[in-house]
From TrEMBL:
GO molecular function: 3'-5' DNA helicase activity; ATP binding; ATP hydrolysis activity; DNA binding
Class in the EC hierarchy, top level: isomerase
Database matches in SUPFAM superfamilies: Nucleic acid-binding proteins (SSF50249), P-loop containing nucleoside triphosphate hydrolases (SSF52540)
Protein name, as recorded: ATP-dependent DNA helicase RecG
EC number annotated for this UniProt entry: 5.6.2.4
PANTHER family xref list: ATP-DEPENDENT DNA HELICASE HOMOLOG RECG, CHLOROPLASTIC (PTHR47964)
UniProt entry tagged with the keyword Membrane: no
Family: Belongs to the helicase family. RecG subfamily.
Organism: Bermanella marisrubri
Catalytic reactions of this protein: ATP + H2O = ADP + phosphate + H(+); Couples ATP hydrolysis with the unwinding of duplex DNA by translocating in the 3'-5' direction
Amino acid sequence: MSAVLDSLVETPVTALKNVGPAMAEKLAKLGIHNVQDLAFHLPLRYQDRTRITPIGGLRANLDVVVEGDIKAADVVFGKRRSLVVRIQDGTGTLTLRFFHFSAAQKNKLKKGERIRCFGEARPGKSGLELYHPEYQFMDELNDTPTEQTLTPIYPSTEGLAQIRWRQLMSQVVALIKQGVGVEDLLPAELLTSKNMPSLAQALLYLHQPPVGSDLDQMELYAHPAQHRLIIEELLAHNLSMQKMREEMQRHAAPAIPASQDYLAKLLKQLPFTPTNAQQRVNQEIVADFAKGFPMLRLVQGDVGSGKTLVAAMAALHVLEQGYQVAIMAPTEILAEQHLKNFQGWMEPLGISMAWLAGKVKGKAREATLNAIKQGDAQLIVGTHALFQNDVEFKNLCLAIIDEQHRFGVHQRLALREKGKSINPHQLIMTATPIPRTLAMSAYADLDTSIIDELPPGRSPVNTVVIDQDRRDQIVERIRAACIEGRQAYWVCTLIEESEEMEAQAAEVTAQSLQDALPELKIGMVHGRLKAQEKADIMAAFKAGDLHLLVATTVIEVGVDVPNASLMVIENPERLGLAQLHQLRGRVGRGTAQSHCVLLYQTPLSQQGKQRLHAMRDTSDGFKIAEIDLQIRGPGEVLGTRQTGLMQMRIADLQRDGYLLDDIQQLSQQLMQQHPHWVDALIQRWLGENVRYGQV
Ligand code: ADP
Ligand code: MG
């Protein structure tokens, strides 16, 4: 080794033995540049190769090391040609089976040789067998003892074998043992009070757990060394969010007083009064506006809780001061629906509006862009087309983002840039209730409001779980409901992410339903239709001109047709619970009792059944989100890529979520008492992935 400096972070990986430019490049692709990065590349799991298990004492499905004498080695021609080697150690006989083997390999594995093998014992033809074990010949081992530590298995990439990782890590371990610095960035009081190991101790332990380590405890991530690093990682993530928030709020934003005029006028024309929850959230927003720095607020409200009105109220405060407001929705259908709602509410107040989506092109687009730039358009509704470079606002002061989980953090930030000299306030609305643990980590940079009350007069949707075999009955039910003047949705789901296949499935379904129900007017929407076609069909359905709407999951978000009171979801087992909850939220918006039929395909797994029953048994979006989180994990629930919620190295939000309250406090403490540690911690754990870093 050369050029080892006195800290790991200052030592480049090329200072290690056997790390040339090619290897350094491979590591760099994994974000590993210096030896500290390497030290924080933590094992995924461990194997116990420290003990030799007697063949007579093997148990199924465990990784084991065995030693024995080869008694026979034969090529067997069964269904597949295989090399079968029998070994004995005095306590029993064991079969090793190789489906791929070379002639040289076969010749070497001959009777009389003694070998040490490592593999997983699995039930096979002749009792327990090892398939493709790793093996070494005893005479080549020269009495090398078994491993002295548990064997770590590292997350890797193509062309980087585990053995290479182990070689690298043994050098890292040696450096740490020599005392090359790896700075402890947790307060000493905390380490003592919680009896946590130092960082160096924890890293040494995790890279080379000594013989006798409790593998079960390690698998539960309950070892103090793991605990210490979990805390550090959660802390680093939290700090990066807090920094982002500080960054945003360091800039001034116009203080906006509460509306004196517009709001009263809007409320007067509404056929209903805002719920207490809507009023409370409005007050929270008003309080933010008064502060003089950018609001960053996430409003969570279950489907149908009336988030649109809350958004409108927020917009009015800002519009009244002469600033522009932008509202973005993730789909065109939803954006158009907002446009209609807002037109109904805002135009009577004399507020001028504009509409911008990808489909707006040519002259129309130019005119719209000009209106936005000149300030002739005060309230702008659209899709992510609003993010595009050529969209210039005159004085954007509030950005409202509906259904946040579909937008990336980066898009949200791009919008901020649109404010140019002004830092716009941001209001983010999500109908997918976010389990608290997730909200605390993925949205730690946002203040949260919850609309925890539905408008009066709603009765929960009655949900039933029914087997596809009874499809005909369901079709009859639709006929009966539609003849009575109600409307229904039929939702097709597909596993493939292809819009085209989804569209085809919807077409086939629509046709077969039309054949079965000739007296009904049936419409269809899917992602492949032109925006105008979609809008026309939605409008026809809303106007009651269609009885039944066959749709793909494009109708998931926000579509509001109160007269629709029956929904059939085909193959609901393919969707996440949160998505099902969203879909189901399309019914139950009017006064009639609504029904949702989950028409599943048999056979359904036990877990699948559990999930659908959970849907049947609760209509509380937060509960559903918790269940979804337990079953599918945070990445799936939030959409990892979209939210910027990163894969963590050792922490797991589900398992470790209970720590987040403490982490929040620790994070505050650190920023006050050890501000110089903050960047180092973030760098250490998030590295070049520092969230928001590249925006
Ligand atoms: P979501 O929170 O799912 O976006 P919406 O804003 O679309 O919900 O509102 C759902 C329906 O409830 C709409 O038809 C809306 O007009 C209506 N609504 C909203 N607030 C109230 C209220 N306070 N009282 C009665 N109806 C309301
Ligand atoms: Mg909505």
